[in-house]
Amino acid sequence: MTQSVVVQIGQCGNQIGCRFWDLALREHAHVNKRSDTHYQCSYKTRMYDNALREVFDSAQLLTDVSGSGNNWAVGHMTYGSTYREQIVEKLRKAAEHCDCLQCFFIIHSMGGGTGSGLGTRVLSLLEEEFPEVSRIVTAVYPSADDDVITSPYNSVLAMRELTEHADCVLPVENQSLVDIVNRIKRMAHGEKPGSVIKKNSTIISNKGGLSGAEKPFDAMNNIVANLLLNITSSARFEGSLNMDLNEIAINMVPFPRLHYLVSSLTPLYMLADVNVPNRRLDQMFSDAFSKDHQLIRADPKHSLYLACALMVRGDVQLSDLRRNIERLRPSLPFVSWNKEGWKTGLCSVPPVGHSHSLLALANNTCVKPTFMELKERFTKLYRKKAHLHHYLHVNGMEQSCFSDALGSLDALIEEYQHLDATKDRFIPDAIRLSIAS
Predict the structure, then answer these.
(1) What's the pLDDT at 53?
(2) Count of helices and strands (H, E) across the chain
(3) Could you tell me the CA-to-CA distances from 14 to 11, 90, 141, 206, 404 in Å, in that order?
(4) Is the CB of residue 21 less than 8 Å from the CB of residue 55?
(5) In sequence order, what DSSP letters do the residues of 394-419 get, joined into one string?
(6) DSSP secondary structure code for residue 189 in this structure
(7) Which residues in the chain show pLDDT less than 70?
(8) Are 405 and 152 in contact (CB under 8 A)?
């Protein structure tokens, strides 16, 4: 059995991580109700007899009395240096408990100081200490109207580290999460006949759950938690076509720096446990390639696909998967040299209360506008040198860090632009002749 280590950094990272573990433990409890094995039954008892915090070894937690003041340099330079040895020791202890360490999952925000600064410092430490183990990052990007004035600085400084040290990055935009939550609320208030929010939900609402009373951002954090639930499902449950997490980086990233994957979840209403009829299976696959189901605002069908992964849960046959890939393939502009760039996984255990679900991961040049918008917001501040002194007062931080980070982002955008320029040469699959028998 393979294992992964989850590293949660900063307020956002820990809130998402808390929701992930809460939902994952409930998911296993639901499955284990059908099992008579002593191990699984005792596991279920442990979950429900204790608070969520008691599931974890407190020795593996690292806390400080204050945050980073929304300053990447404080998180990266100051806290990264102060706690370096403690962080490395805790990572080593976690790794030693694994029989077959498959990957590290890092969860953090981009706009704050601790998440972006210390989060990317931990990422580089992982590369130093465990160079052979994959590093998959879930990074939450701030919206344009973010109330942290320095978030563009923090995000661009963090982007350089993600580009250099991560194997895969799953960018999640706050605005996309807000849009999805609002859409679910509209569904729940009757835009769809017969749709209501289930009370005491076992998959999304944490009322009566392990982590206590519902918090303001739980609805948004639940969406990201479901992303992690789906991506780890093959490692947690059996399936006819389980996907090794290392295969994501190997199959989805043809160019080392272009490892930002667009994720989409379907059906969306599972995220709010809205009581509407299950969509037809084919519709679920179509939804996965709709921008309304993505965790980042982008339009992949008008951009170029480098690769795509489909991770399906539930009672779905391999023939259903292949049929839908063949149905959708002609409408998706893939690079000419990787038209067969599909990775698939089938996990037999669906999310609680649903017959099936689908997570799609696309390596697509549609992420470029998000990075361009981030660069524009960064430049508006940097042109005036606004708030720069807060960073330069931090020991080890120099102004060259800003210019280097901006140069790294420019180079990344240029690489995507270069690929986009080849899209005009995209030729859809020719219509195949039907041969009479």
Answers:
(1) 58
(2) 17, 8
(3) 5, 16, 15, 16, 29
(4) yes
(5) STT--THHHHHHHHHHHHHHHHHHHH
(6) I
(7) 1, 34-58, 65, 188-216, 269-279, 424-437
(8) no
Distance CA 136, CA 120 (A): 12
For residue 259, give the H/E element and its range. none
- Partners of 141 in the beta sheet? 173
Contact 247, 136 (CB under 8 A): no
CATH superfamily for domain 3-33+42-209+216-370: Tubulin/FtsZ, GTPase domain (3.40.50.1440)
Closest CA to 172 of 243, 85, 262, 278: 262
Which pair of tokens denotes residue 103?
């990957």
- Yes or no: say if 126 and 94 are a contact pair by the CB < 8 Å rule: no
Res 342: pLDDT = 93
Comparing CA positions, the residue from 172, 54, 61 lying closest to residue 110 is 172
pLDDT in the model for residue 279: 62
Does residue 144 contact residue 377 with C-beta atoms inside 8 Å? yes
Question: What is the residue whose two structure tokens read 């990572």?
Answer: 91
Helix (H) or strand (E) holding 433: none
* Identity of the amino acid at 435: I
Give the span between the Cα atoms of 103 and 94, in whole angstroms.
12
> Are 305 and 333 within 8 A, CB to CB?
yes
Cα torsion angle, 9, 15, 18, 23, sign: negative
Q: How many CA atoms lie within 13 A of 312 on its CB side?
A: 25
Joined together, the tokens standing for residue 33 give: 């109700």
Angle in degrees, 0-180, between the axes of helices 10-32 and 38-49, rounded to the nearest 10:
130
Residues 6+ apart with CB under 8 A from 311: 230, 231, 233, 234, 243, 344, 345, 347, 358, 359, 360, 361
Question: What torsion, rounded to 10 degrees, do the Cα atoms 6, 11, 12, 16 define?
Answer: 50
What local confidence, expressed as pLDDT, does residue 52 receive?
Answer: 57
Query: Phi and psi for 351 in degrees, rounded to 5?
Result: -60, 155
Q: Please give the Cα distance from 151 to 158 (Å, whole number).
A: 10
Looking at the whole model, is its pTM more than 0.85?
A: yes
